[in-house]
Amino acid sequence: MALRNDRTLRLLFTSLFFWMFGIGLYEQLVPIYARQLGASAVQLGTLFTVRHLALAGGFLIGWVVVDRWSPRAAIATSWLAAVPVPLLLAAAPTYAWLVPGLLLYEVAYFGVPAMNAFVARRVPASELASTFGAMGTITSLGFLISPTVGGMIADRLGIRATLIIAAAFYVLSAILILRIRWDEGNAPTQRASDSLSLDQMRGLMPVMWIFSGTILVVLITVPFATPFLREVRGLSLSQIGFLGSMVALGAVLLTPVAGRIGDRIGPITTLAGGLAVFAFGVLLTVYGPAALLPVVAIFRCRSPLNTLGHALVASKAPSAVLGRAFALAGILMAVLGAGGSFVGGYAYRIDPALPLLVSVGMAVLIAGALVWWQSRTAPSRREERSRSRMTPEA
Hints:
The protein starts with 6 loop residues before the first helix and ends with a helix. Helix 7 (112-121) crosses helix 16 (322-350), helix 10 (198-219) packs antiparallel against helix 17 (354-390) and helix 12 packs antiparallel against helix 13. The protein has one domain (2-181, 204-374): MFS general substrate transporter like domains (Growth Hormone, Chain: A). By secondary structure, the chain is an all-alpha fold. Mean pLDDT is 81; it is low at 184-193 and 381-394. The chain has 17 helices and no strands.
């Protein structure tokens, strides 16, 4: 794999590891923290709606800067902008004061399209899924023990103490980003993204809707899964943190498998299978016995779906517009996530299990649609391959 011989990617992924370790300490505690600070179910949904809209704004900024800034400027600036976030969250006296920190974090995603394009351009097309799989696996390793550690710290010292410790890992990650020499290695020179033409937009939209719809399935569960485990299933913060670590274990185990399968049979078919696995995990989180929750958590990991979605976008977008293609996918994902969180807050008020069950239903529908679409397009692809074999070489 190209990662073994690319020092720049190794350093970038190591920085991602420390960043994800830091966010893993507290991310799943944010909904519980907001509830502790006085947020109702609807206010919690609204908080995450605002958060997703800020994420859309961050990707919109990414759309603008990806073809104007160098990869180093876009990635490093976004990284540094998000460093104060845990401290801002720790200082919040009420749930409304969480908004500045959460907004800053989401807007700082403007560097992600540049990072994804940078990674995609450094590897051959035949290794896209496995490289993004490695990226997802390495970042998931950061989540492997950090949610358990964060939950234990929160149980003993409070969630604010967890946030302060997370800030130290953000600083360490930012230091590593600043040490990267972006011009080293055998990768081609980074090109600025061209503007997406109308024809290119039309050609990419099916892929964009697949990617954003898939991630929406996950995003619907994010604000409400941990409150459900806390308020309905009665788990402690330490237990919820341990389940978060099990989710990360699932990502570590399943993401590289998804990447290899995606390279072999295609990301669309693999994505349908990944959605079915995710739906199974969420369904058993609602109805399964408590003793099985640690095992079930393994199937709720989002990393395989992210990996396959990014590989799908990278495989369909022309190299010159990769950055903007990733930005467009992020904008669609965030806008859909905002709507899902807003509706989910009212659904949670009706029945805490309802947002999770909606996610299960959507996962099944999208997986079925992907299988149907793949079956419709497979014959034409076989015919094209047959014609190409029959065509004499020049």
